[in-house]
Amino acid sequence: MITPETKNILVEAAWFDPASVRRSSRRHLLHTDASHRFERGADFNACRLASALVSVLILEAGGKPEGELIDVIDPEVAARTANRTPIKISVAQVRRHLGTTVDPDGITSEIVQQYLTSLGCEPLLHGLDVYLVKLPSWRLDLEREIDLIEEIARVYGYNRFANTLPAALPVNDYPSAAAEHAVRRRLLELGFSEAVSSTFASGEDAAHFYDSERKLGKRTVAMENPLSEEASLLRPSLVPGMLTMLAHNLNRDVREVRLFEQGQIFTGTVPADASFISEVNESPQLSLGVTAASARPSTLHSAADAPVFELKGAIESLASLFALQGGPAALSFTAAETPAWLEPGRSATALLNNQPLASFGELAASQREVRKLRQPIYLAQIDLARLYELPLKRVTSHDLSRFQAVERDFSFVLPDKVIWQTIADALDALAIPEMQSRRPVEVWRDAKKYPDVYSLLLRTVFQSNDRTLREEEITGWSSRIVEVLTGLGGTQRA
After folding, report:
1. How many CA atoms lie within 13 A of 148 on its CB side?
2. CA atoms within 13 A on the CB side of 95
3. What pLDDT does 308 receive?
4. Are residues 103 and 205 in the same domain?
5. Are residues 238 and 311 in the same domain?
6. Residue 47: burial class (beta carbons within 10 Å; 0-12, 13-18, 19+)
7. Residue 441: enclosing H or E segment and its boundaries?
């Protein structure tokens, strides 16, 4: 070190090999400012300049030089750093790699020369729009022609390139892309937010949320080198991840949450005569999660039941995106054979052509206690693979009618067992082309005063594309609608 008694000072400036510095820093677990700088490659030609600057400061303080500068240069190291072989760059290659620009002239030879010079390079013309570029000693990252092209693009500005795709690289959507987009858009419209969870699961979660006994020949897939016990399996279900995300929100005082996740689940195929997994299968699934501190009741459902029917409505809405074989009647619901992680009596299974499509309902109380969740959780797991086998409904349009539409309302008292789908099917069976729509406007009930029945205000719209409707036509259609509703057990209100 230098003290007030110091008389002689030896000034040394050296260049250190980046690879050696990096290996030494890792071996000794020492990361310093010097190692951070030198392991990335310092300027080989900076040694002489640095030595001169320090010497000037000493001379200004009263020092005197003694002897000449000793400059030792390793030719092999200099050839790898300061004296690297010049790189040939073609302006035509620059244009080919970077593509079309928003400027009419594009990237010209003058622009290439200007940018390379400003970066410290020395471009020398070596032919028609071809340069030999001598590289600066402080840019050890420049090794090939493509490195120079990247630098030109960076200085030129990425925002000045046109938004085009390479003709040699066609971009094709995967088969289920349109269906995934339609499902995502519908759920966002229903008020859900998309979330993404981990692809891994623990053995405990798999035991609770994957029923291997009901899926013969299918097993969970274990990781060969798991990061932890909580991530020892490829997830066989999206439900554990959804519960983790809901708990994350609840633990941060977010009391009303609606999430969905589209993702793959993984199962292994086990041959009948073997005990090992011969093939790993991926299947697209959809998970929905709903929780609210105080659910809002509807005219038909209590506050406790409203979230369950919200999930049911979401499943029906998603199914309506696809051309179901058999129409809307192909989708049905049953309370039988629900998974063990759902609360009995507060869960159901959606069937598509009598085959399981989705399970939904309230999370079982035992699972809620294990996860220390402070309010009811409602979940749905949907097999998207079954939906993706069906084509999406085609959007059709027609010219608007130039003739006046006529509305007619029908007020009826109906038994609880008569669901809306039954009413809609019966009205559609009348085959009245002029009936453009039929929808329930109001539904209400008074369970104490009028048990087992509900009131329905049905609104129909009649309109023709080629004529003005006559009163006797509308009266006839209205009479037929009254007959249908009466036949379903309804009583018309005065």
Report:
1. 31
2. 14
3. 92
4. no
5. yes
6. middle
7. strand 435-444
Nearest alpha carbon to residue 141 among 154, 128, 130: 154
* Residue 444 and residue 315 in one domain: no
The torsion of the CA quartet 467, 471, 475, 478, rounded to 10 degrees, works out to: 50
Which strand ranges, in their side-by-side order, compose the sheet holding 453-462?
Answer: 435-444, 453-462, 406-415, 491-492
Residue 261 vs residues 149, 337, 376: alpha-carbon distances, Å: 41, 24, 19
Return d(Cα 380, Cα 335) in angstroms, integer: 14
Q: Is pLDDT above 80 for 297?
A: no
Judge if 375 and 416 occupy the same domain: no
Average pLDDT, the chain: 89
Q: How many residues belong to the chain?
A: 494
Q: Reading across the β-sheet that carries 200-201, which strands appear in turn?
A: 200-201, 233-234, 221-222
Mean pLDDT of 176-190: 94
Burial class from Cβ neighbours inside 10 Å (0-12, 13-18, 19+) for residue 432 reads middle
- Structural domains in the chain (count): 4
372 and 436 housed in the same domain: no
Tell whether 200 is covered by a domain. Answer: yes
C-alpha 47/C-alpha 54 separation (Å) is: 11
Cα 294 vs. chain centroid, distance in angstroms? 29
Q: Which helix (H) or strand (E) holds 384?
A: helix 384-388
What does the pLDDT read at residue 169?
Answer: 66
Query: pLDDT digit string (tens) for 55-84?
Result: 999 999 888 988 888 889 988 888 888 899
Res 294 pLDDT > 70: yes
* Model confidence pLDDT, tens digit, residues 311-368: 999 999 999 999 998 887 889 999 888 898 999 989 999 999 999 999 999 999 999 9
- State the Cα torsion 261-262-266-269 to the nearest 10°: 130
Map tokens 């570029």 to a residue: 133
Residues 139 and 186 occupy one common structural domain: no
For residue 102, the domain's CATH number is 3.30.56.10
Domain interval for residue 31: 18-80
- Identify whether residues 142 and 225 lie together within a single domain: no
Instruction: Give me the DSSP letters along 168-222.
Output: TS-----TTHHHHHHHHHHHHHTT-EE----SEE-HHHHHHH--TTTSTTEE-EE
Report the alpha-carbon distance of residue 186 to residue 10 in Å, rounded. Answer: 75
Q: How far apart are CA 476 and CA 458, in angstroms?
A: 17
